[in-house]
Amino acid sequence: MSEDLNDEMAQVSTAIFTQRGIDAIRAKVHSLRPSKEICECCGADIPAARQLAVPGVELCAACQDVKEKQDVHRAAGCRGLHHV
Ligand SMILES: [Zn+2]
């Protein structure tokens, strides 16, 4: 295996795990999926306007906000958030 190829692979792997890479992948995945009517995180209704504004949306605005701020701790952030 050549050094160049290793280098390229490393760059690709790094890109995949950077936030920008994740966002790019998510954007592609989301564009292929319908928006959710119910937040996957807390079960709250997602307004129709938000479903249209964010194709493939899975989270309500509150959960999305938390997720973006605590993306590293996404699972914990989601679990700690309940609109009850
Ligand atoms: Zn939510």
From TrEMBL:
Keywords: Metal-binding, Zinc, Zinc-finger. GO terms for molecular function: zinc ion binding. This is Zinc finger DksA/TraR C4-type domain-containing protein. Gene3D superfamilies: DksA, coiled-coil domain. InterPro entries: Znf_DskA_TraR, Znf_DskA_TraR_CS. Signal peptide: none annotated. The keyword DNA damage does not apply. It comes from Trabulsiella guamensis ATCC 49490.
